[in-house]
Structure formats: structure tokens, C-alpha cells
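Retro notes - structure team

What went well: the batch runner handled both jobs without manual restarts.
What didn't: labels got mixed up in the shared folder, which is why I'm recording both outputs here explicitly, each with its sequence directly above its C-alpha cells.

Job 1
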Amino acid sequence: MAGVLPRFGPFGPLPAYDEFGIKETRPRLPDGRTGGYDLVERMEYLYVRVVKARELKWGGGEFDPLAEVKLGSYSCATRHIEKTAGPEWNDVFAFSRERLQASFLEVFVRGRGFAKDEYVGRARFDLGDVPVRVPPDSALAPMWHHVFDRNGERCGEVMVALWIGTQADECFPLAVHADAAFAVDAKLAAHIRCKQYTVPRLWYVRVNVIEARDVAFADKARVGELFVRSRLSTQVLRTKTCVSRLPSYGWNEDHLFVAAEPFEDHLIISVEDRVKVDKEEVIGHVHIPFSDFERRWDTRPIRPRWYNLVQPEGATKIDKFSCKVCVRLCLEGGYRVLSEPIHYLSDVRPAARELWHGRPPIGLVELGIHNAFGLSALRARNGRGSCDAYCVAKYGSKWFRTQTVIDSLAPRFHQQCFWEVHDHCTVLTVAVFHNCQIGEKGGLATGDPVKDVLLGKVRIRLSTLETGRIHTHAYPLISLHAGGIKKMGELHLAVRFSSTSTLGLLQTYSQPHLPPMHYHCPLSVVQQERLRREAVAVIAHRLGRMDLPLRRECVEHLCEAHGHRWSMRRSKAHFFRIVSALAPLFAAIKWFVDVCHWRNPVTTVAVHIIYAMLVCCPNLILPTFFLYKFCLGLWNYRRRPRHPWHVDTKVSHAVTAHLDELDEEFDEFPTARPHEVVRMRYDRLRSLGGRIQEMVGDVASHVERARCVMTWRDPRATTMYLLVCLCLAVVTFVAPFQAVALLSGFYLMRHPSLRQRLPDVPANFFRRLPCKVDCLL
């Protein structure tokens, strides 16, 4: 790409093209970088690509050929091809160069069901002649090699390519890492490869149910109790029940669903009658394809449409059935479908691509996953502890999964990935899992649904990263479960955030965090949580259908699907977060109280002098305040954080959490615990709620007293208050403002000898005012 100059348009750099006129797939940075493997250690592999074979001869008749690659004590095999002399496999195997145990490699052509020492032919390769290839070098062309039987006679040819490469090779994601702890077959290889996933684009589906007409019943004297049920895949919503003697029923209610492109399901709308308390009958239904939906990204009105209903099979036939329903259907492209908590958003762009034009990415974030060390053993293999770990990195619509490193408590990944950044006030999430699908007792061998185990999670907020600097740090992997907290190891990461447009980067601070539709037509908190759960389910379903499926528990952990559940530990953490955030304010109040009580006379006298200067020269108040903030910020620059935040057990209050609180946090909904445990937790929650109730009641009483002073609820108190206000109005009108402010400040900071231990007169007056606590039962 040397010699290609970046071009700029009105909104930043235009896409770069190489010398052949091909558009680059990676965004080019101002220094010419497009993202490579410069954040991780270079790891070399011996790649063996077995393409196909021809003219195979076997004296035993027909057989199902397969190729086996053997290097020292490591061996792996391709899949078998049914009864052919010219099979095509096109499989790639990778051996770590650090683990090479022999100076030659053998490729055996066997048949399915052959004995261990039986083969059709064999080809041998000297590893000293293997070439070295590093991208962007062209791919190495495979060659035909003769295979010989035990007697040294030629029995066919096999097409093989061998080369030494790195993890940057394009064959690395497809390669089977053959130097694993046990034999790797094709089924197992599909569950240990690295993979990149693209999350489908999600849309909000709005269904406005207006009315239904010409509703007829078999019993003409019946008064219908009708409601409309909307169904999209597994999402089901219903309207309120409408009772009417007329053949028309009205609701005018909105139903919101989540759908993913490409749209595969139909919307099913059914009008149902509530015959009894526990019995409902379908009057008619209609299937609506997504081609009937309008797309909008603003608040413009949607045209209503009428649909004729069809009677369900098995229902009582009604003559001249002509029931129809009126609905408004649209795909909301102006919203960002939230699949993760608002605090951990990784992308804030709306669903409609039409709203993306003119907004190029402001930067590039590159993540290097080095290695993990000190992992906890989660399974036993050959009499010792073992772990089969892999990482999943999530940002925006691009998810990246590393290969599974088998049988290692210190796995080395050394994988690098990158993402375009459109808003740097977002979060990059990396999680480490233990692969429970492989091994003798894994889900693939037993056929049982076994969940992968979360070892730990790391969140990196891009706004906390310095531009252009490589942040390298070992992050602790903390696992919290019902039995307590445990450190599962550490993960070594390298992160670099590079800006392509400094102006665009600074402009993001003045823009809304979410698309405008979230403010023009906001969704309620209940709707957001319900739609977020549905979005996570849709993503898990789509990613579970890919070639290397990403398991549902992985998606739920990365998207914080269960973050909305009640947790006593998290409630305490939030409370102490507030206390910690307000600590400077409490410290300032305490300092001022000490000044007022003359704990340090020198400081108090200095405060009196500064206060008098500011009162006499009020034009210095704001400049002094902002200059103080500026100097304080420069002073804190020396102690600025050097690494991004990571999971903190003290902030999370995970260390001090009681085991019963953790068991309650991880309990399913609805609960499956015994009645005695549920009763104890309910009583504990009632006790906590009672204390909160008293605090809220005290705040309400103070607010009501402040309002009652002007409502003549206590005539004598109101009369005294009004007379004091009149006197203060006369005094402040006659006396200069500086004199009033100076006397008020000096009175507030008067010497302790001029004070009394009893409350002041204004506090006593305020305390005696009435409030509505007398009206409570």
C-alpha cells in the first residue's frame, strides 16, 4: 500500500484504494496503519494443507479414503469420502513450531475402518525444506506428491502444501490445531477453531392495534369480550379486553417487538374472545409478511391498513364471516435496539443505514489477546487439573472468538482483532470461557446439554484510553457464583485506540448519547427491559445457527442478560458508590463546619478575609471558582490512572457478601428454593424496605413543612413567617447587598463562645411546622 495518499472529503478521510483500485476493507489511519498483528507476540506454525488425492489403488476393493497427518506423537485426520479413488478434502492442519518433535512429516492415505498399522499409501516430507510465508505473501500453491505402499510401489498421488506461517495467516481460522492433548476429528475441530461473528441488524417492530369490525359470533345474543393477540416468533403480546354490544371493538394500543434481518417470520394477529375466566376462543387470525411494513426513522404518522381475518380450523363456521382488523405496522429505524445495558453500550447507531451516511468512523480500536495464566482447573485429565479456555471479544455488531487452547492452565492465544469506532464513549467486552463441549465427558461425547463455564470478564471503556497509546495490562478474572467469589486467573490484553478524526472525536461530546428517536418518542423503562431480553434471545438464536455456534450462555453473559435481577449485594454496592461519589461534598461540609467552630483559628481567619474580598468584589467569584477547578485538574494530572478500569471486588461488595445473599442473587425466576428460605428472605427484604420507608417519610415531611409555611395550615407560624419576610425585605432594600452578605457570613462563622449547643431559632421554627403525616393511617 506504499505510495497511496489518503484523500479527504467534507466529513473526514475517504475510503482508501490500493494500486489496483480495490477498496481497502480496513480503515486507514493518519499514519498509514490499517491494523495488523503488532500488538501480540508472533507465533509460528507449521501449516499442512491436504487438498485431494487421485488414482488411489487398493487391493482390498472399494474403501472410504481419508488422509492422516502424523508428526512425531501428534496425528490428525481428514473426514472420509464415500467410495472414490479421487477424494477431495481441502483440510488445513496447524502444528505449533515450538512443539515440533520430529524432523519429518508423514501423510498416510487410509480407509475408514482400517487397522492402526494399515494404510493405502504414504508420503514423507522433510521439514528442513519447508518454506516460510508471511502475509501479504501470495498463497503457496499445493503440489502433487506420490504415495507409496509398504512394498515401495506407487499407489496414487496426494496434493499437499506445507509452509511455516504465523497466526496472521488467512488459513489460521480454518486450521485444525493438531498438537492438541488428544486426537482431533472433524466434529471436534468445528468447536475449537477461532471465528468471527456478525450480529444481525436488529429493528423494533411497532404494531398499533386500532380496532376490529364486523365481528360475529355463533351466539348472536352474546356480548363479546375481545382482545387482540400479536405474535412474532416467540414474542407474544395482547391488548386489554374490550366489551361491546356492537360489532366493532376499539383498542388503539401499541405492541413492540424485536426482529432481525433477514426477516424470516411473519407477524400473526389474532382476535380472541374471552369466553370464560380460563377459556379463550380465537375468532380469526391473519399472517402478515414483513413486506407490508413501512420503514420510518422519524415521528411521521403511519397509514393504517385493514386485514381480513380467517377463521381457524375446527372453529364453528359462521355464515358470511367478514371480520377485519385495522392496524398500523412499521419498522422503527430511528432507534438503537438495546441488547446490552445502557451503561455498557458498544454501538449507539440507529437501525436504519440511511441515518449513517455522512458519519464516517472517528477511530479504530485494536485488541490484542495475549494469554491467560493461573487459570483454575475445571476438569481432570490424566490425573491432573486441566482447562480448555477460549476468549470472546464483543464490540458493536462484530464479535470475535479465539481458538480453544486444549489442556492448558496458561493458554497462549496471541490473537488480534480490530473494530471501527463511531462513538468512543462505548465499552469493549472480553470474556473467557471454559469449553465444556470437548473431552471424554464433554457435551459432544455424551450428547447432554452442558453449558460453557464463565471464567471471568473484562470491560474496557474506550473513552478512558489515551489516543495512540498501547495499553498493556493483566486483568484479573473474577467469577461470582452462589458459593462465593473466586479468582479464576488473569488475562493479558493489549488495547490501542487510534483516532482518524480529532474534530469528530471532540464533536461526540456535544451529541446525544442515543439516536434522536429515543428522546422524541421515548420508551418506558419496562419496555426497554422487556425488549432488551427479546433482543438477547434473538441474537443468541442467530449466533447459535452459525457454522461454529456461539452458545447461548456466552451471549447472555456478554450482554448482561440477567443484570436486571434483584441483588442485595448490588444494592449495597450502588449505595456505597453514591457515598463514595459524594465524599468530596461531605468533606467540604465537614471542613466548613470546622471553620465555623474555629477548630483551626488561622484557617478560619483566612476564610474570613477571602470571604470579605469576594463579597466586596463579587466579579471575582466566578473567575476564582473556575481558576480553582483548573488548578485542581492540573494537580490531579500527576496522579491520573495509567490503566483502564477492571472488575473490582471491593466496589462490587463481593468479598463482604453473605452466602445467602449470593444464593438469592443467582436464584432463578420464579424461585426454586424451599418455602422456609423464601420466607426468611422476604422478612429480610421487609426489614430493609421498612428502613427505606422511614427515610422517604422523613424527606416527605421536610418538603411538606416547607410548603405548609405558606398555606396557612398553622396561622400563627404563617403570620410570623410573613412578618419576618417583610422585615427582611425592608432591611435588604435599605442596606447594601455587600453589607448583608458580609454580616450573614460572619454570623454563620461566629466564634464558639457566641454559640449555644441548642438548635438555632430557624431550625426550631421549621421543626414545629405541620406536615401530612397526621393524615396517614
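Job 2
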Amino acid sequence: MGSADSKLNFRKAVIQLTTKTQPVEATDDAFWDQFWADTATSVQDVFALVPAAEIRAVREESPSNLATLCYKAVEKLVQGAESGCHSEKERQIVLNCSRLLTRVLPYIFEDPDWRGFFWSTVPGAGRGGQGEDDDENARPLAESLLLAIADLLFCPDFTVQSHRRSTVDSAEDIHSLDSCEYIWEAGVGFAHSPQPNYIHDMNRMELLKLLLTCFSEAMYLPPALDSGNTNPWVQFFCSAENRHALPLFTSLLNTVCAYDPVGYGIPYNHLIFSDYREPLVEEAAQVLIVTLDHDSATSTSPTVDGTTTGTAMDDADPPGPENLFVNYLSRIHREEDFQFILKGIARLLSNPLVQTYLPNSTKKIQFHQELLVLFWKLCDFNKKFLFFVLKSSDVLDILVPILYFLNDARADQSRVGLMHIGVFILLLLSGERNFGVRLNKPYSVRVPMDIPVFTGTHADLLIVVFHKIITSGHQRLQPLFDCLLTIVVNVSPYLKSLSMVAANKLLHLLEAFSTTWFLFSAAQNHHLVFFLLEVFNNIIQYQFDGNSNLVYAIIRKRSVFHQLANLPTDLPAIHKALQRRRRAPEPLSRTGSQEGASMEGSRPAAPAEPGTLKTSLVATPGIDKLTEKSQVSEDGTLRSLESAPQQNSAEGSPAAEEPSQVWREQRRLSNASASGQWNPTSEWVLSWKSKLPLQTIMRLLQVLVPQVEKICIDKGLTDESEILRFLQHGTLVGLLPVPHPILIRKYQANSGTAMWFRTYMWGVIYLRNVDPPVWYDTDVKLFEIQRV
């Protein structure tokens, strides 16, 4: 039958379903088979031929028919899984049912009255499969559906290569088949890479799309404060009930990490061969991050010890979370597996960068946001992986793409989520000493970026990009400033030598943040000054030798520090500063920062195209909730300051640290300022002005300024190189206050970020699935869809 005919017949069946007011019996196969038996419709056809209005009409007018349609379609998938889909006809039925369910499920989820439907039991569908009358034991429809999908994903000659030697061999029995021998791709725990097969990839993709649609019930629930409500679909699929959990987890992870969009290393190859792998890889990445949606703050994740076993998973650890995907991820431990994962993710994240200097040489992938979520999950759930990433300079292969995305997206309102996840990852990494140490590696890759040209290290790149985000990003990025500066504070004790460009950028930020109107105009703005002073103190105390550029910049801008020390605290001065604000331009203009030319070949960061869709995000917790303070001991180990008994703030904690009650008070005040009630008082300014950690810098200026001035007068100098040479050989040993302990603010898991990740991840999935538009125009509750 021609495809036009089959489309017509399928459309007729849909019309019959929407116009029948009487329930159609489940036994009426002649009627139900029209939806799947003799049609060859693509998923796009199904979306076109089953309009949303008609699905909703059936749901309202004849609910029993919609229920039967779902039940029959699931039954067909279960039969396909039981039989092993040996005939072309059976495979076609499975694909048709899969497409139909992908189309209908979102409309079931959007109606609260239907929410329990898939979790109700269907008479006769016994858990054992045999007991027809055994209703006690009946499986909910959702469970039958999920198990059928899992079986079908390892179905020989349908989604995996058959291992039969010849056609004479009997068909592989799908029940006794060990799916671990059919993992889709070599990598973690599997050495054999099967022949690529376009048809198998397409079939897997359709089934994964259905699986993702099952999981998407989460989109139809409003964001909950307790993120403890687990997604029942994910919970069941990732439980021991699914006998394919391990091979499927491994297949998804390996498919993503082994993918090479370059066309196996040959530039421009993708123009000759259409790449059918990418849609599968994208789908695999999306399913993987959804199965790993697990709030690590509220659960015990397996502790890490040094034992290893012969398997890819570390068996020596205590049993971890119930979710087997999270469990397996947290137990990967072999170096070669870590190398494979890290190389794969770095290769894919760098793909858009390669694009910029060899245009069109490789296929440009679009799923970098999913990859960043996956990388986050790996670091968050598997500490051994995090340590592996930081063990070598390979971490820079993740850092550079993240800085590229941050810089590229800074002006685009629709990419706020991307900005957040990039910053969160850097915050997580910055809590480890090794990250700061790695940043000292010279930066030589010349990725065209819209930033000033500089010669220096990866630390310079990070500072220059952060400065650009703060001074020329859009307003909605302000909540990230605390995070950006916390990252710089965390790495500062380890930075051996900042370039002049980066040193000037840091001082420009201090200048901008310490203007009186900025300090007084919101309850928490002064934190930014505290962070910057802490950066300068760390570098002066721990890395003075080698940082003559920064010392020189501090000397040149010494007036900023004197102004801070003499900050007015009387009410008339405060009011005058705020009056000035009403006339002032944007909070951070680029004036006073010598921009210099941008890198060759770079394009300026562009705002979103008008009309671009974006999804709303929940607010992220403040930096004091996001991080936990730890002190670095003499031997380099970290000691948490959070659980320690409340000690006198003068002893053991740096001056920059404000006692937590001050933070709490400010949190309260800033809530007031958000509602437009903010009125700074003299007491408030005095409360933090007295804690500004200026002693070290003032001492440095006191010692060095007269010496520098003397050189300039003696030699009639205006040339900085001579002054820099003097500063390079200078020393402040014995002249500075006793070094303060290094304080690191480490990211800590919390329910607020878990909820943020959930809304961000589903927002990305919603917007990226446009062909077919699975969730478009359905009543999602987890976020709002907005136009820029």
C-alpha cells in the first residue's frame, strides 16, 4: 500500500475515534488495528495527522476510548518485546505504537485527573505474565510500558546486531538473552564496537524518544520546594525491576562519549556522509541526564574508598541510591574509563570552537547544554571522577569551551540557563586546589573570542572573560556576580603570575564596585568588594613573587583603596551618593577599563533574536547557601568552618569573613530592597566598613609607593618596564601582617540547586525537541515559556 493511502486510512481512524461517542470495545481489533497494523507513517506524519485539539476532545468527550487506545498500544509493544519482533510487520507495529504514544502521552500528563491512569492496573496483565486471572499481581500500565521499551532496546535485528551465525540458527530467545553482550558502543565496561547500523540507530532513537516522553510527566508538575518528589517513571525504569538497567546505562553513556562529529577525523567529511548518529547521541544524552535527576543533597551517595575490583563498577562501596543509573555512575572508577568519558565530553564541548577557526570543517553539534549537565552530574555524583579531571591539565579542555560559551552567551537573554550551569561547574571545580594550580598553564590556543588580546595563562583568560561578563553582560546576570568572584577568590592563592591585562581588569572591577552609589544602592553589593579585596590579599600574601603586574596595578590605582578606607558613613553623604545614582548610567560602564582590540576573527556577543523562545528558571540559592566555607591547613588539607563551634570571629577566620548573623541580617535587608524598600543607614555602612580587609594592601602601599616615587624622580622615569623590574625584585618579607589562613568556599549540594537543575534540564529538552514538537503547546507547569 502506498504511503498516501496509509496516511489516509490512519487519518480516517483518527476521525472515527474523535467522532465516536460510544465506547469502542477493547476486543474490536478491526477498529484498533487501523492505528498501527497496516500503516507506514513517520513520526512527523503522526504529529500532523493527530492534532492536539482532537486528542483533548477524545480525552474530554470519550475518555474510555483514549484509555483503550493507550492500553492497546502498550499491549502491542509488550507483544513485540515478548516475540522479539522477527518480522518486518511486527517491527512496523512497534514503531507505529511508539510514535502514537509519544504523541498522546503529554496530553494525558497535562490533565491532573489522568495522572494516575498509567499507574492503575489493567485486568489480566499479570506480573508473572502467565496468570490471566491473577489480578492481585497485575502490573500498572506504566511498568509494562517501561519494561517493554527496555526489552525492545536490546532486540536482535531491530535495535542491536544479531549474534546468530546463520539463518538456520533459531532466533535468539529474547528472554534468555544477556543484554550485556549487546551494549551499543565500546567504552566503559565494554570493549567491542559494533558495526554502525543506520536502521538500528533510527529504531533506538524512536524508542528513546518515547522513553523521554514517559519521563516528561515531571514537566507537568509545578516546581516543588522539596525536590524529594521522585519521578515515578524514572524511579521504576532505573530500579532492579529493569533487567537491562546496566547495559542500557552503559550503552547511553558510551554512545554519547564515543561520538565524533568530525567524521572520524577527516575535515569536511560530514558534507559527504549524512550523519545519522547525531540524533541518536542527542536523544541518548537527554535520556541519560533525566535518569540522573537525583537530589544528592537529600540522599546518601556512596562514599569513596580506594578499593577497586575487576569490573567497571566499584563493588566495594556500600550500596548507593536506589536509582541504579546514579549508582552505576557513582561507582565507575577505572582510569581508562575516566579518560574515555573526559576525552569524549571535551571533544564534543570543543566542537563549536573548532568550528570558528575552520568554518564548516566539522558538523556543528547543538547539544552542549545537555553535555554540561552530564559533566556536572559526573562530578557531583562521582568524586573519583572529579579528582581525575583535576589531576592533569585535561581539565583545561573543559574550562576553555565553558569560558567560550559564557562569553558568547553573555548578551543573550534566552541563554541565562547556559550562563548559570557554566558558572556552577567552575564553582564546583574551584573548590579543589588543583584547579587553581592548573590555571597557571600558558594559554596558547587561539580560539577567536570577543575579548581583548592578551599573552598569559588560563587564569588570565578566566579573569578577562569574567570581567567581560560583568561589564557587558545583561542585567539578569547580576545574581551570578557573587559566584564569579567566589571562583576567583578560590583560585587566587595559587595564581603565580597574572598578566597586566588581567590585573587591570580586576582593578577596574574594584573601581566599579566601590563607587559610593553602587555600594549603597543594594544590601549586598559590598560583598563584591570584600571578595575582590580577598583576591588581592591572597595573591599578595601567597604569590607576591611573580605578581609584579598586579602589585603595579594596585599602586597605580591606590586612590581606590584610600577612598574605601575613608568611605563616608553619615546619612547626608549616603543620600547624596544615591541621588547621583539616579542620574548615573548603567551600573558598570566600560569607562576606565582600557578595552584594547578584540581577538581577530571574533564576533561580538549577540543578543537573542527577537521572538526567541526561552523557558523560565527558578531562582538559585545565594552564595552563602551554595557554598560551605573551609579553611586550608598548613598541610594543604581542608577543614570545614561550618560545623565548627561558633568561634570568636577575630580568631582563626580572615577579616574578610563576616559573622554569619551579619549575612543573615543582610539577606533580610536585601529581600526588603527587592521590594523597593531599601534605605541604607549609617549603622549599616559602619557594620561592614569596619571589617573591610585593607590592612595588607595599606601596608604594601606604605612600603612600596615611596620607593616607586623615588625611582621615578631619580631617573625621571615614566616607563613602566623599569618600575616593573624593580617590583619583580622587591620583597615584602617580614613587612606584611601575618598571612591569614586561606579560605575556600566549596560548592555544597542543596535542594535549591537540585530544583534549579531540574527546571533547567527540562527547559532545554522542551526547547530542543522541535521535530517532532513533542511538548509544544501543551500545558507544562514546571516552567513558563516566554518570548524574548
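One thing worth noting from job 2: The beta strands are 121-126, 138-140, 613-615, 627-632, 638-640, 743-747, 785-787.
We'll revisit the folder naming next retro.
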